[in-house]
């Protein structure tokens, strides 16, 4: 099979890019030919035999123009190489040509009307640009999805968002993202590496903390009612309001802001629970990474990956704004070490069903189903 992947990046350090990296890697391991139409590509894929047609937009800012140029150039390339490939797999609005499969990682039409989006921006100019960017992408995405024979949603919430835009149910399938079961594995790491206390339970929070979307403010408020718990926060603190908020709430002595980190796998092994009640998340790979690490998860229904969190391995809050419910969930885990251990064991079992190999296999089954479909 000759597979063409169309996406901005095929790299491990990017959520969508990592999914495509794994698809390319598994396809090459199976002996398939892989063509990458992308801006950035991991060198090891080229060493394994992938072919790369680089699309590097001349315009980098504003991002809206970068997206438009990227799609214009990929579409021109696809018209040239269409006869060379068996499967053409795009990701969102990256292609303005008919194709077999499109993976939806984010639905801009849903984000356009989200109250969370409105709270993310400040200032009239920024607000106007963000609205324009989201509105344009919502329109462009719909065009792209309708040119695909099939659309794969990365979570059930994304599938619901796609159906709400008018796509027929038979046009949309769900393929959850995967996780590296070797990198993210159970174990124990000494906390002294990060200056974290060893003598009390440790919760970990990972996400962007320069705005309120990830909901660290509610976590900090809930922390006041869980006095035995220490919280480690991974996220860029430059311009973040949350260190000051922790101080005002009187919990600063129990919160360690670690900045941006590339050793989250080790931090998860040093933690007793993972807390992530984000206000809006189409999937959140880090939730699956926590499960794979054998760490109980406290999250919210507004997180796409929450559908993987069963009562045996974590707690899913109906409302991410409910600080009282969040504090109760954290306190139940802090006060019951055997419960944390049982949940951790079950978390790993759940994650085993969602490794990268299982995700890739689900996509290969779709490829086989679509291989004989005409996309002209």
Index terms:
alpha/beta; Rossmann fold; 14 helices; globular
Describe the structure.
The chain is built from 14 helices and 15 strands. The mean pLDDT is 96. The relative contact order is 0.12. The strands form 3 sheets. It has a 7-stranded parallel β-sheet, with helices on both faces. Strands 12-11-10-13-14-15 form a 6-stranded parallel β-sheet, with helices on both faces. It has 376 residues and is of the alpha/beta class. The longest helix has 23 residues, at 124-146. The chain folds into 2 domains: 2-178 and 355-370, Glycogen Phosphorylase B (Rossmann fold, 3-Layer(aba) Sandwich), CATH 3.40.50; 191-352, Rossmann fold (3-Layer(aba) Sandwich), CATH 3.40.50.
Assembly classification? single chain
Under CATH at level 1, the class of the largest domain stands as: Alpha Beta
Ranges where pLDDT stays below 50 over 5 or more residues in a row are none
CATH domain topology of the largest domain: Rossmann fold
End-to-end separation in angstroms reads 19 Å
The assigned structural class equals alpha/beta
- Mind describing the biggest β-sheet? 7 strands, parallel
- The CATH superfamily of the largest domain appears as Glycogen Phosphorylase B
CATH architecture of the largest domain: 3-Layer(aba) Sandwich
Q: What count of structural domains?
A: 2
Q: Note the run of SSEs as H and E.
A: EEHEEHEHEEHHHEHEEHEHEHEHEEHHH
């Amino acid at each position: 099979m000759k597979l063409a992947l169309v996406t901005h990046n095929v790299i491990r350090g990017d959520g969508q890019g990592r999914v495509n990296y794994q698809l390319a890697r598994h396809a090459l391991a199976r002996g398939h030919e892989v063509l990458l139409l992308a801006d950035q590509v991991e060198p090891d894929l080229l060493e394994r035999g992938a072919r790369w047609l680089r699309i590097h937009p001349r315009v980098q800012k504003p991002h809206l123009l970068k997206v438009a140029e990227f799609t214009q150039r990929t579409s021109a390339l696809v018209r040239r190489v269409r006869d060379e490939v068996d499967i053409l797999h795009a990701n969102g609005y990256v292609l303005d040509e008919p194709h077999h499969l499109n993976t939806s990682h984010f639905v801009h039409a849903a984000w356009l009307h989200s109250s969370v989006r409105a709270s993310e921006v400040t200032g009239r100019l920024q607000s106007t640009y963000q609205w324009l960017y989201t509105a344009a992408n919502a329109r462009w995405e719909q065009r792209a999805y309708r040119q695909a024979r099939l659309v794969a949603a990365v979570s059930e919430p994304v599938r619901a968002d796609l159906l709400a835009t008018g796509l027929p149910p038979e046009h949309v399938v769900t393929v959850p993202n995967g996780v590296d079961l070797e990198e993210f594995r159970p174990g124990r790491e000494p906390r002294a590496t990060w200056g974290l206390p060893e003598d009390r339970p440790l919760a970990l929070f990972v996400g962007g903390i320069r705005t309120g979307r990830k909901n660290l403010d509610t976590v900090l408020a809930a922390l006041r009612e869980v006095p035995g718990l220490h919280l480690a926060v991974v996220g860029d603190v430059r311009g973040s309001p949350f260190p000051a908020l922790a101080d005002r709430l009187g919990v600063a002595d129990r919160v360690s802001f670690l900045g941006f980190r590339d050793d989250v796998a080790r931090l998860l092994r040093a933690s007793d629970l993972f807390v992530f009640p984000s206000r809006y998340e189409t999937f959140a790979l880090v939730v699956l990474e926590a499960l794979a690490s054998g760490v109980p998860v406290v999250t919210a229904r507004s997180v796409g990956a929450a559908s993987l969190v069963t009562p045996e391995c974590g707690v899913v809050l109906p409302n991410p704004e409910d600080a009282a419910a969040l504090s109760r969930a954290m306190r139940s885990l802090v006060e019951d070490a055997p419960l944390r251990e049982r949940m951790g064991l079950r978390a790993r079992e759940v994650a085993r069903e969602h490794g990268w190999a299982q995700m890739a296999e689900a996509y290969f089954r779709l490829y086989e189903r679509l291989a004989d479909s005409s996309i002209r």
